[in-house]
Predict the 3D structure of the following.
Amino acid sequence: MLQEAIFAGFGGQGVLSMGMILAYAGMIEKKQVCWMPSYGPEMRGGTANAVTIVSDNMISSPIISRYDTVVALNQPSVEKFESRVKPGGNIIYDSTNILIPPTRTDINIYAVPGSEEAVKLKNIKVLNLIMLGAMIKATNAVNTETVPKALEQVLPERYHKLIPLNMEAFKVGMSYVK
Amino acid sequence: MGDLKLMKGNEALAEAMIRAGCDAYFGYPITPQSEVLEYLARESEQRTGMLAFQAESEVAAINMIYGAAGCGRRVMTTSSSPGMSLMQEGLSYIASAELPCLLANVVRGGPGLGTIQPSQADYFQSVKGGGHGDYKLIVLAPSTVQEMVDFVKLGFELAEKYRNPAMILTDGAVGQMMEPVELFDQMPRRTVFPEWATTGKKPGQERRYITSLHIQSEKMEEINHRLQAKYKKMEENEVRYVEMNTEDADYIFTGFGLGARICMKAMQMARENGFKVGLVRPITLFPFPTKVYNDLGARVKGILDVEMNAGQMVEDVRLSVNGQTKVEFYGRMGGVIPSPEEIYEHFIKTFIEGGKK
């Protein structure tokens, strides 16, 4: 198994932590993982992204230009990364925010109204967990049972009380991938 | 040992420093390695009493390293390219005075103030002596976060073994990325210091004196001879590198640090397409693994050297190969990272299609 994914959106939408949760979950499952954030000027206002690789074998390059999966939380991310999805790969996008959807026919496209569902859960910050739920359901990159354990490691202890809400959001996201 | 922890490269440097029983860190913040000082400021003093000190500039930091190393303390500093340039004068003094210390350069794109994106353009500065005079650093090039940890320990060991400054030459991407690491156990800070350390003269003890100033040229030449003999010993004993798939290889990809990992993926692509490509990754940039390139040069059809610069290590590769085979270069500059696809395409263009002509 090799999953080369990129999570992309505006800074502040939780794209970096989305990738980090996946990386922790992979590490807990004794897989090889690598998490590479964009740390350039784009973090200050533009599109932020994090490449996350989960693999059964040693990971070669952390720098990749073609992805198995793109998770897009804003329009610029769809425009930038849709063409870089490997044929047969996935694009999962927040259909509340992204009004011009991806158009390729050789990849799997999942429209997840993440922002709308996050509002229903009364916490816009869980948008990233909704999208991650859809991503993990679509790719089986890690087991869903590992995700709460990963959250325990990513979130500071004072936020551990939010793990049940985050898992609720995660399940909402999963429900959009059949 | 045992537990895996997901860490950023820069945090791994800091954690390894504490665990290696480092006595003090002197540095000045600069992107993309500011996490080192931030991490130490939170952790070091309460855990081992290790001092983490923000100097007023990189020039001050390297001279604090000089002073503390002279007192026999285990000391380290980190910076990124423009900051490392400021440290070169002090580094030359430290090398001349034969003091052990460890530096890490988390390289960013240059020249000048440049960019904050990753680069490998400080190879010449690190390997060929960025400061004045005939001196060498021991230079280690990590390509994973695990090696960031391992090379802090190794760097201190080699620096102390040879009484010579050692450097970890890495880049912004390795500094910023997270990978699982296995940490070594906490080592105690030293309580007994080397016999040359200037720790205060006791009654009846011989006077110890550390300097890089020797007015008499004969004396200075004698010191140069001693330094050169030491560098030769390093070349004999401390060369480290990794070879992959070289046994049956027709072609070799080579690079250091992050560049080597990108090459590894390009090598896999080449193998999938039926080309027998191997990989050589130097771990020590000085001493350079000359022999492996010379041996491979005698039997492969070509070597492709890939770096995030205009072509620096490739000069050492060509010197090692000594004309026995074709050595080509592919690089990106100014903070741009080459993709595995670009490297593979360049290989096809220069060696496969070009070879048919």
Notes: Residues 15-28 of chain A form the longest helix (14 residues).
